[in-house]
Amino acid sequence: MFRRQKAQDEGEKEQLLDEGETESLSDFRPLVVLEFSSKTTPVTREWMKAKIEASKKHGGAELNAKMVVAKDGEERVLLVSAPQERLLHGAEQMGLKKKYKDGSVRAFTFAERQNIEDYTESLEGMLTMSQSQYIIKVELDNIRALETENHIPGCSNPKARLYKGKSLLSRMVSCHLLDKMYPVHNPEQLKRLQHDWYHLHEPKQLMGRQPIETIRGYFGESVAMYFSFLGHYTKALVVPTVIGVLYYLFNESGRNDFVIFAVFNMIWATVFLETWKRTSSEHAYNWGTLGRQVFEEPRAGFHGKLGVNRITGRSEPVYPSWKRLLRIYGVSFPIVILCMLVAVVVMMIYFWAENIAKAKHKEENTMLTKGLVLVPSIIYSVVIILMNQAYRTLAQYLTKNENHREQSSYENYLIVKLVLFDFVNCFLCLFYIAFVMQDMNYLRQSLAILLIVQQLVGQLQETLLPYLLMTKRIKKGEKSGLDHVSKPLHEIPRSKQAEVESLMDRYEGTFDDYLELFWQFGYVFLFSAVYPMAAFWALANNIMEIRTDAFKMCRIFQRPFMEPAANIGAWQTVFEVMGFIAVMTNTALIGMSPEIQPLLEGYTTVQKVLIFVAAEHLIIFIKVVLAFAIPDMPEWVETQMGRIEYQSTQALKKQAQLHRTRWMITSAPSLDNENYNHS
Amino acid sequence: MFRRQKAQDEGEKEQLLDEGETESLSDFRPLVVLEFSSKTTPVTREWMKAKIEASKKHGGAELNAKMVVAKDGEERVLLVSAPQERLLHGAEQMGLKKKYKDGSVRAFTFAERQNIEDYTESLEGMLTMSQSQYIIKVELDNIRALETENHIPGCSNPKARLYKGKSLLSRMVSCHLLDKMYPVHNPEQLKRLQHDWYHLHEPKQLMGRQPIETIRGYFGESVAMYFSFLGHYTKALVVPTVIGVLYYLFNESGRNDFVIFAVFNMIWATVFLETWKRTSSEHAYNWGTLGRQVFEEPRAGFHGKLGVNRITGRSEPVYPSWKRLLRIYGVSFPIVILCMLVAVVVMMIYFWAENIAKAKHKEENTMLTKGLVLVPSIIYSVVIILMNQAYRTLAQYLTKNENHREQSSYENYLIVKLVLFDFVNCFLCLFYIAFVMQDMNYLRQSLAILLIVQQLVGQLQETLLPYLLMTKRIKKGEKSGLDHVSKPLHEIPRSKQAEVESLMDRYEGTFDDYLELFWQFGYVFLFSAVYPMAAFWALANNIMEIRTDAFKMCRIFQRPFMEPAANIGAWQTVFEVMGFIAVMTNTALIGMSPEIQPLLEGYTTVQKVLIFVAAEHLIIFIKVVLAFAIPDMPEWVETQMGRIEYQSTQALKKQAQLHRTRWMITSAPSLDNENYNHS
């Protein structure tokens, strides 16, 4: 019975594809654009097009493709599309989850399409455009070399060798045969999104909700997760801002005992990060990314001897993990430590030079020496920016050199490197001022300058950079005879859209945006005890930040492919660790402030120190207990997940009874037994 | 095709069951014993027997049962058994995992029985006896009331009401109709196990390996996990013991700077606990319990209004979690805090009384006053033991009162209560001596006495208690005319075995054993800096402990039902937290020791304190980094788990394609939608 039904469905599918192929080309709605490099020969390009259109039986992707002419007059741009039914079958293959009419979120199957919440008879609208584009990307990535193919046709590069199961697209990227691959924008949707997101019509919208679900629909989960986190963090800043401003206004005595404020902030950081976990798991449940363990394909840059993946049993490059560990701990780790030491030395030189300049000024007190005092600061600022950029390139090089198999692992190791160095580079001079020089006024002043200047520079970059990119684009466009480049996409004729998008820069992911929040979080929380107004400046910045980031996403960059995300990954840990460091710095700052001493009269200095150590331990204890006590998932999400788990166990049981899993065993590759004799 | 095969298999099964039922009763090998209480009527007992034997279609368990005469001459003892094929089908239903011939551990299915590593044609030996007994227990627990049944037949107790889906056995327990239910011992296996485990033939066996796999086969995972942990901990103690003894022997100057030893111990605690995670995940993988999320049925004592479980969709009592939280934080929490305060007050009274006695002795110095000095210690020791016992009862009462649905949650809340109080009760006087009295010699002395005495009492209890229980059993046995009671089971005639086992006491789980290790771990690690010999005493005790605990399991108690376990649960957290507290106490002790002061000459006292605070933070940082850096699973386990995950995803995809999951959706109960509109 099942057999026959399957055959029937396949028949249906084939028929649908036939229809798709005979569609008149004027109806062709491109979803993804591939731009071959000028190095490619027509043979290679035609071979790739044929592969994309070929049936799965013949190693193809069963998608529709259309070759168009690039600026230089050659047919180097390939538009890829697929009919709705084909995409839905792809969604099923990929294990995409959808919300069903009964409220649960489960793996989508084409057979049950009528039970899906947003089912329509025409099937239109059942997938968001970004999902459709992602499905096409996955299908393209999964076009793999057949046994008979050992070289990319029409390509003389000896590196362009293939082996059975190698992804053709990743090989074309590594041989520089493919320049660009990006999903196209949808001008109408984009216009509506911009309107809801950052077009301010009334001032009351300033703290308004972001349209997270729409953002997710248009840009995918990882971008939506970033903006939701940014929103959650901004909302969380309101409370410290209010308290900080009240302190500022009514603390007329000029005393700086921000003790209660600092203690509140330390606890608040935990509450905010734990409630964020709840929000993020709600998102992840609704988006079908919660608890989804997807087997990760190797990164494009991953290399190694050809072997067998012990998990999938497929051929793929294999790289021994001891070699990777050697590179991490033997190469990267010492270099990172060295860089941090260099940053420390540079900082020491700065303080030393400043002291000399100040002494000179005191001695002579001329206009020249007054100017001289500023020189070290200016040089140091420039050096910091240069070091940051140089280190960034270095960190990327080192992490690439570690040869991680998975993109996620690559990103985590990169985050650790950047965060460690940036911590030293941004915060160490503040630590020096606070705990070595013990000059609280200077600390407050430096903190204010660093925070405000860094934010201003950031905002400028995010408005200046677009302007520069735009001018570049306009120039480029003029060369190619395009005069629409500066206009929003919905004001450009459809036929010119792809060409305009091709000129746009690629969006490199949420990395920089999180790093910016990391700095800000540090400035606000590490030194709350001396400068409560930091929260106010951070809040003001973030309200702007949401808009400039949104503008950047909608107008400056090529649309990115969506990336499934269930949380903010390693950044959660980074912020949590900062929360603990904040407890240490703040209790130390409070303990050192002269205003607190009279309160502890009668105690010896040692006893006072011990009291602060005890207080620090107590606050850390409270934070740990709070982190345990606040459940990471709201109860309704937990119940739903339990229900899905229970049903799938029940399903597997029934199945086992029907003896249907037999094929699973026969298809499992046999592994040698030697590793399992651990008694 | 599948249909037919299924029908065929069912036919096979029925045939097998028929054979089982027509088996001559002399061949009947009992696996599980049920003893009905003297309150039950023959009607109830016969009804239960019929249920156990009835087919699943009629709400039964399809097992074999045989009623035998109890001591009082009534037929109140029910022996339950099942043929091997029936048990294997039960194993499949339960989702039991087995090791396959290809080395992987996956859910067992009867259809693939030939691919299992320990496949035999007769099917004997494919399940361990403890697994067979566990399967029978699960099947018995799963006999549920039909729609037509609303009261236990032959029982006038109004509490004995039933509703559709209520487990009959749990209702019989709550109505005191079922006295005992236990799996029978296997005398031959037990004899061999005893021989391998604790019969010392040569001294070199003293540190020998325990037969963990055999223990697991006989007693199940949770008991095997405890003994494996005990063994791992004992081995880990060897290193501190060696260092401690070396210090003791060669530290002739009499100086007490155990600094290096203490720092080593703090780091060592983390290494030992992290490597234990690896060992435990290896066990769990081999035993098929790793990553196994089983839906937990409600505890026997759980009560609430009859409602619908939102996960399974079945009727069961429902208890709102806000009521539980109210009881936890409103009732239990304040009472626990109060008890801890009482313990503190009692301790203060003890020190006060001792001071008075000492002063009196100094003043008068007679024999009488010399005796008087000992009185407070003696009284305090007795009071501690009494408080401990009283608190234990209270904690159990409070936790029952919290009305947890799951047994695991009940146990976790009980562990937290006991550990909090025991920490105060056992360690607070040592903290007082160390940090308030600051008398290091007195601390060392008290620590030695507490550790050695507590361990001696423990060992005595574990050898005296068996003796007392044995005598009780012999007396009971004599009354019933049994004269074999004191002998090992393999020397008793088969026919008398069940009667002897019925007299044995029930094993209450690994709770007390872990609590004993908790005390010991505290004594050894919290004060390493003053008393390195603690490790030696602990090691000596544990080598004995393994034997006495083993003896207890094999000779004193009824065999327990196996319990699946993937790790040591909340105890892992408890030991980890103790590891962090140890860092604080030890750095404080080192900082306070007068011998360390000359090393820090030239620093002010405040600077010295700050140096120790910095050292403490550094050690905690190292511990946290180590905990992250040591992977919780060995690589081979990780690969295997990834492989299983990958294969099951692939299986689900194939399935989805074949549209076989449709039934899963139609059988899913519909939930109201209102909770899911969180945008």
TrEMBL record, chains A, B:
It is a multi-pass membrane protein. Its main location: membrane. Residues 215-643 form the Anoctamin transmembrane domain. The chain crosses the membrane at residues 223-250, 256-273, 328-353, 373-391, 412-435, 521-544, 609-630. It is found in: Membrane. GO terms for cellular component: plasma membrane. Residues 1-16 have a biased composition (Basic and acidic residues). GO terms for molecular function: chloride channel activity. Pfam families: Anoctamin (PF04547). Residues 1-22 are annotated as: Disordered. Keywords: Membrane, Transmembrane, Transmembrane helix. Belongs to the anoctamin family. This is Anoctamin. It comes from Branchiostoma lanceolatum (Common lancelet).
